Amino acid sequence: MTSNMKRRALKDKLSANDIVVAPGVFDMISVRLADTMNFDCLYMTGFGTVASYLGVPDAGIATYTDMLNRVTAFCAASNTPVICDGDTGYGGLLNVATTVRGYEHAGAAGIQLEDQEFPKKCGHTPGRRVIAAEDMVKKIQVATEARQDPDFQIVARTDARTSLGLDEALRRGEAYVKAGADVLFIESPESVEELERIGKSFDVPLLVNIVEGGRTPQLTPAELQALGFSIAIYPASGFLAVAKALERVYDEIKALKGTIPSQADMYSFAKMCDLMGFPAVWDFDKKYAE
């Protein structure tokens, strides 16, 4: 499926009534596995991608070049539309334009841009500060003008709820929609009542961020849809599950128990070979064997 086809598929899905659930992908194994499971959309998580690629916190350390490298690799490996975290746009307005063009050229179905000050910090963590709403409005206007494909989704995120309250977050959301955002993402609502208020306040597709252990209540996709949300992302679920599984099996290896007790919970080696494309390598070797 071409990039344009993936973008159109996502845009059409967002126009339907069913909620889109998007798992977080953070490395090439997670991308390849999620791509086999018929999701309508994947979400390139900043936290997980920066952690797996650089081994550092998602706190403004990763550069545009770092993240474009990951966007390019993830989107090339996936037939599923991918919304990719673009942080603050990696600088001023010219940087935002460059970032949008770069992500679109790399095959992303959409980009998430947020209104945090630089250096940004991962959502649901403390210490997040936001720029003036008027400055973010300009970023969104630049982003919409910079894209080549009108189906490329501009996801506008505000982190104002945590530091300035929900009223300010809603005010910013309205301004960002007027500026041209296709999808609105109000980060870190802290109750069902706040989720309900957000859902009733806007007519554009709304994105909700479900983080295990985070600030937002853990509701089912059906409950979130009933409240007015169109996309539910699960950015941390994959890498949290992987880290727990690694900790368990590494503990067993360190304790000299071997891995026999854990093998029933492991992805099989044969399936991993298939997932990563080894059959094509073996066929190639057979074709050109001396």
Describe what you observe in this structure.
This is 2-methylisocitrate lyase-like PEP mutase family enzyme. The protein is α/β, with parallel strands linked by helices. The chain is 48% helix and 12% strand. The protein has 13 helices and 8 strands. It has an 8-stranded parallel beta barrel with strand order 1-2-3-4-5-6-7-8, surrounded by 8 helices. The mean pLDDT is 95.
CATH architecture designation of the largest domain? Alpha-Beta Barrel
Question: Percent helix among the residues?
Answer: 40-55%
Element order, helices and strands?
A: HEHEHHEHEHEHHEHEHEHHH
Q: What is the approximate shape?
A: globular
Number of extended strands: 8
Give the rounded overall mean pLDDT: 95
Instruction: State the secondary-structure class.
Output: alpha/beta
Query: For this entry, what is the oligomeric state of its chains?
Result: single chain
Q: How big a fraction of the residues is strand?
A: 5-15%
Ends apart, CA distance between termini: 36 Å
CATH topology of the largest domain: TIM Barrel
Biggest β-sheet strands, sense, barrel: 8 strands, parallel, barrel
Rg over C-alpha atoms, rounded to the nearest angstrom = 20 Å
- Name the CATH class of the largest domain: Alpha Beta
The number of helical runs is: 13
The strands making up the biggest β-sheet line up spatially as 1-2-3-4-5-6-7-8
Number of domains: 2
- Name the CATH homologous superfamily of the largest domain: Phosphoenolpyruvate-binding domains
